[in-house]
Each structure stands twice: as structure tokens, then as C-alpha cells.
Amino acid sequence: MIGAPPNVAHFDQVVARFLTNHGFPVRDYTTGAPQNQHTGLARPGEVAYSPEMNKTIARLGAHARKGKRRRLNGNEQEAMRLALHEGLHQMRYGRTPEFYDGGTALGTVGGYEEGATEAVAQDLLPIIARKRFGHLMPGYESVERAFTAYPEQTWNVRQLSTFGSGAKSYRDRKARVWRRTFLHSDPDARARMIEQANSARAEWGKRSGR
Predict the structure, then answer these.
(1) Range 128-131 contact pairs with CB under 8 angstroms and sequence separation of 24 or more
(2) Nearest-CA neighbor of 133 among 84, 51, 69?
(3) What is the pLDDT of residues 105-149, one digit of tens each?
(4) What is the pLDDT of residues 170-186, one digit of tens each?
């Protein structure tokens, strides 16, 4: 079987180090051979991408090897977001597989896992883009873009983080910290955070009439 291109594997390790250094201690993982089922896929200890996505991530890996500072085009931003998303899943695989049981529909355990993973990947994307490539992404909101994974689940987690943290907007630091805490939490703690956030949202609805 043909393995992943070296520059793709290199960039995944760049992402893994970045995540660990920013408070997301992912387990060691490798990059698997290209696969056609999904654009990106995480398995316990492994991530893999489609052939087309591999080409874009390979370019990022080549630039990262050279330490090159450059502007990233839209495809490269999406590829980096995907690498963050699949890398973040490695915090969970092997420890709490129940997060992946029962599908990923909105409001399910898996749906919250995917929404939180995607929301945090989007929170981190401007940081890694700036630190690795000097590319600034002010006002980045990937959830509103056509290629973003799990848009409903991601938006739901953003809303929960706003009400659960008491922030004025999901962009605020308090909301970002809530999402980070949620992603790290076990199922019972997540359930409590969701209940508290929904209660706060219901109270706001009573006051505002919305």
C-alpha cells in the first residue's frame, strides 16, 4: 500500500506539536495512505486524507520545512483547518471511544464531539497560520463557509459557549475558553455544561422574548 507523502506526514507532526504546545495533548499519531471515502478521516493513532487534500497539505508541509513565511490561499487554509480537526480527535481516540458511538447528528454525543472539535479547530487556525507562516486571518469564520465540516453542530457549540460562559459573543475569550474546556471534558462534565448553557439560553429567551 502506498503511504502518505513525506511532506503530508511532516505537516501532521507540525500540527501535533502545535496542538500539544497549546494545551491539547494529542496522542502520537501517524498519517495513513490516501483514502477516497472522506476528505479527512481520523482513526485511533492515525489520520488520512483524500488524494486532492494530500496535494494541498503536502505544499504546506514543504513550506513548513523551509520555514517559509507566505500568504495562504483559501484551499491551504481549509487544508490546515482539516489537519487541526483530525489531529484534535487524537486526544479522544483510545480513551473515550463512546464519544464516537451513535452517529454525529445534531444533539447527539457524537454531534457535540464533532461540533466542539471543529469549533476549536477554527479557533486555533488563525494562531497556527500566523505562527507558522506569518499569515494573518482577522475575522475568520470558517463555520459560514461552504466546505466547513459539521456546520450545524459547530454553530450549536458556539452558541452554547456564548451562553454557558456569559460572553457577549462566541468570538470572546470567555467563549473560546468554554469550548476548550468542553473539548477536554468527560461525558458527565459535558452534560452538565450543556444543561447549564441551555438554562442560561432559556433565561435569556424569557427576558428578550426571543
Answers:
(1) 128/15, 128/18, 128/80, 128/84, 129/72, 129/77, 129/80, 131/18
(2) 69
(3) 999 988 999 999 999 999 999 999 999 999 998 877 665 554 567
(4) 999 999 999 999 999 98
Cα gap 57→143, rounded to integer Å: 20
Of the candidates 52, 49, 56, the one whose C-alpha atom is nearest the C-alpha of residue 3 is: 49
Q: In this predicted model, what pLDDT tens digit does every residue of 22-48 receive, in sequence order? A: 999 998 899 999 988 889 999 889 999
The set of cell numbers assigned to 168 is: 457577549
Average per-residue pLDDT in the chain? 90
Q: Which residues contact 151 (CB under 8 A, 6 or more apart)?
A: 143, 144
C-alpha triplet 111, 175, 29: angle, nearest 5°: 55
Could you tell me what percentage of the chain is helix, strand and coil, using 3-state DSSP and rounding each to the nearest 5? 60, 5, 35
Beta-carbon contacts of residue 60 (< 8 Å; ≥ 6 apart) = 7, 11, 72, 76, 79, 80, 83
CA 109 to centroid of chain Cα atoms: 16
Strand ranges inside the chain, DSSP E: 30-31, 40-43, 46-49
Cell numbers describing residue 56: 494541498
Contact 82, 40 (CB under 8 A): yes
